[in-house]
Amino acid sequence: MVVVVVLIVDFVRRHPYWSATLVLVAVASVVALLSVRARQRERQRAEQAERDRAVAVTDTMTGAEFEQWFARLLEASEFRHVHVRGGSGDRGADVTATAPDGRRVVVQCKRQSLTNRVGSAAIQRFAGTCREVHGGELCMIVTNGFFTAGDGVRLAQQLGIVLVDRGLLETWAWTGTPPSSLLGR
């Protein structure tokens, strides 16, 4: 190692212009490489965002993939501190975030087949944990499908739980603007 350093120092002393040229070429190469990688990452993010605009992509996802997809949608909609918490033991909080207005958001994601609806039992379970266990100020159940009409929907309205079904989710994904019920309007 010492021999290499001595050789480099000797070369720099005898050839200062070549040394400077080699350093400039090396720095320019590194900058060019970093620039290309940054453009590739940005292009990949843009392509992912374009794919994410179509709710139909969620129909073939797993539940965990749907949670990640929804987390990206929240981030794109200016929600901050977005964390995917899903999995066993999540106690109903698949995604947590901070809304643009500062409220703590707790989300239960329900990836469903189009023929299977989210029912009253799922709404009741989430109602029991969102605020008391997770400290949610804005509680939301999101599905790529639909909710069953009836008691569960009425209970959600009564408890201030926002239900986002496929129609609302599709509009949100396409426009990047959350439903007005999430914005306090």
Automatic annotation (TrEMBL):
Entry annotated with the keyword Cell cycle: no
GO molecular function, one term: endonuclease activity
Cell cycle keyword on record: no
Organism of this sequence: Micromonospora peucetia
TM regions (residue ranges): 17-36
UniProt-recorded name of the protein: Restriction endonuclease
Restriction endonuclease type IV Mrr domain span: 59-172
Pfam families: Mrr_cat
Species lineage: Bacteria, Bacillati, Actinomycetota, Actinomycetes, Micromonosporales
InterPro entries cross-referenced by the UniProt entry: Restrct_endonuc-II-like (IPR011335), Restrct_endonuc_IV_Mrr (IPR007560), tRNA_endonuc-like_dom_sf (IPR011856), Type_IV_Methyl-Rstrct_Enzyme (IPR052906)
Keywords: Endonuclease, Hydrolase, Membrane, Nuclease, Transmembrane, Transmembrane helix
